[in-house]
């Protein structure tokens, strides 16, 4: 396509509707309009100009508002489908098979279909992410397509515009003026905080141009946000780990090299409904216990960098902190959250070695259920050897005891008890409230004495280096929205012709009421000719037609 | 009188003030002679004064309850929904100051009344905060959201007035059908309020045992005669009505029963109104809006979205993400409430692009505004009560 030369001599880029310099209409469509289309100042937008190559076609596709809105609508419909049944992250199943079974069991055939279509993990699905990607591309392309020419045009505005530009503005007036009209208008406009530039017999007053950038600024904010979300796929930007820690334990913090955490105590508090909480009495009576606080008191340690691997005696205390919901422990870009707990996990069990008949005792032994010792020496030369330990016993397989998990939920002990009277030893398999003697009746038994328990805290460890980027994106978005919505770009063009006739035109991107209020003040002060709102007139005519119909 | 009692009484005062103001607004608008706005001007002043008095009492309810509980009263279904009714009125007062439109009050106030009445059907005693809600972000995040939603809802009210005026009721059309459907759904809410109030005043209670979706035995209390029974139900109350049908375990028959009663009562009410008035409910209201300036309604529709959309972005997305990062360790987790907040936001974004980019003004804009309100209500009611998620605090 070729550049377009205007009658005024200015050479415009191909596809321009209104001459960049004088504002004359350059296209037939524009010439036939009663009002000039000022949305993008009549500039040449790439999408409206080229449509030949495949690049043009893609560009035009993504720059269209219709396509942008369609993507938004498809996205919101897709998002809503994901809320019909719970997503897999909120389902009490972990493996692919159990998740699939869960949907089938709980929701029947609809659940099976939902799972088969992949809706149980809709927001991580390829097509959903692709939709978000398309939205991002649309944001970028549509913004560039409009912003670049608009910026060019507003930057190179000329003061003097052709009459045919001015009388196609929504606010237009023409009439005789006084000698000092222009001077007074200029003074009043300056007083109203307009930037006024003059050229020969005319002036251009402008304010709030930055509001025109609002949409592009908020789109930039959204793009930065989406970029930040994408970054977390890169290793090192994002850590999400779970750590179960028992009271009294010290453990390395996963994915935080050199850091260790010790749980001193876990606490679960519920509302009592007494004293200060008496006001909640009625509610507590209705719903039962209400949790008040989940808290893990921790000590955070760090190993010096020159420390030997595996050495734990040279750790330095970094912080002591009660981790509560809403109050994570923060250090070095990490945050540790109170997420879950298990109360009263078995810690150790104490038994006494006794003669079944005489109840004579050789003393007690305590078995640690996490790291049990293998050999226990008791009084008078008696010993107990732990041949096998099954923390979560769930039956025998081929005569072998089995454990379901490594957690001490249902501990089973295979022991050999040796006393001076039974030097060859007696074997016994001990469970809670049950003892099996595989090789015949024993003389001695381990009788259960007591048990110690402790709580386990479920902590989540997070590091998210993308947060500042996301925050920046959000901030820029809000600035852009405010900039575009709460400010407006107002302009007046005023010219005095040689015979003294004054013509004036006004434009704003929104809030015409405010523009008119400004103009009324200037008119009164500088005795400008009366103006008309050319669109209001057509609108009123439409309204009348509408009224006749109803 | 304790602070909590004072708070409850102030809410009554607000409710009654809104109720009276509704009729005064209606009278103000109806009293207009064709083409003149004299009655509107005179009685509009009285009505807005009543509204402001009600709103002050409503604020009084809010802050005394805050004092009584020690936390912002935005933590459960009753508190949030009541606050939504309040911000709806607040949003109306704001736009009334800008545009002086009594006709808007005639639409907004009854809707606010319905919302407050709906809220009162939920347990309203002051309740303590669970650990996840113990944060200053409760006040910051939820109050921004509720104000934003109140203001956004005004656009739907303006849209409704616009549609009442422009939709031709003498001819069968999709527009006529949907407009009547809006009226019908508002009456259904009234049906819920009436049936809940009736059965709670008569102290209806029936207990059942059933098997839940995990296969565990559970118990349920019905506060309305059970139309639907839970999965494998067994009545524990002797004289309980036998449910007409049993539902599968994934469906909560208790809630379904409540919904069905609301439909029954609401539908009877709807047809009673139609029989007595001998016309569509929309047609009853249409004469009230004959004087309405359509451009002004379109402007209010747009203006309230201009105010509400940034607030909503801030409260329902940005503040929400900040708090979610602090409380739940991740700023976004595709929890149903989060998803529906995103859907609401996307919807209004689409509205703005269609309006500014495609010139969708007037009637199209009005329909969109009404749909936006429907999405907000869906997120408030359905997502809390039907779709289980982290935000189910009701």
From TrEMBL, chain A:
It is found in: Membrane. Residues 536-550 have a biased composition (Basic and acidic residues). It is a multi-pass membrane protein. Keywords: Cytochrome c-type biogenesis, Membrane, Transmembrane, Transmembrane helix. GO terms for cellular component: membrane. Pfam families: ResB (PF05140). It comes from Planococcus salinus. This is Cytochrome C biogenesis protein.
Automatic annotation (TrEMBL), chain B:
It comes from the Bacteria. GO terms for biological process: cytochrome complex assembly. GO terms for molecular function: heme binding. Residues 91-193, 270-391 form the Cytochrome c assembly protein domain. Keywords: Cytochrome c-type biogenesis, Membrane, Transmembrane, Transmembrane helix. The chain crosses the membrane at residues 6-25, 46-68, 80-98, 103-122, 142-165, 177-201, 259-277, 305-326, 338-354, 366-390. It is a multi-pass membrane protein. Its main location: membrane. The keyword Transmembrane helix applies. It is found in: Membrane. This is C-type cytochrome biogenesis protein CcsB. It comes from Planococcus salinus. One of its GO terms (cellular component) is plasma membrane.
